[in-house]
Amino acid sequence: MKKKEGLIDKKFLAEEKQQWGKGTVICHSWAEFEKLSEETPEGFVSPGGAADALGVSRVYINQLEKEGKIRAYRIIVDDKLKGSEPFWVRVFMPTKNVFIMIPSEDIAKIKEEMINKAEAKIKKLRGKK
Length: 129
Hints:
Shape: elongated
Number of helices: 6
Distance between the termini: 71 Å
Helix content: 40-55%
Order of helices and strands: HEHEHHEHEH
Structural class: alpha+beta
Largest sheet: 4 strands, mixed
Number of domains: 1
């Protein structure tokens, strides 16, 4: 009988790695993420929050991560780490194994670039160079 490896197994990690790109920062625990996040005082948003802030799709957010235009902290939480909490807490815990957090400053930078491109296009359409 094969020993259960937990929710995060080789197949899962192989599928997850397909999403990684130049902007991916891997954290193998919340403690590791918290240590890295001290360098980012402006905070973080989820990929959905980032997409909403920019008015784009989550697919575009993934593309920006792959191209290295934004950083995406992927926190991998193994189910082996779960279980030390009281039962009533576990009931409310999400079953996700990978949490993705994007620095707000990266989103602000992309937003500024999008605004500059839009303003340049408006000037061009109005005939001003």
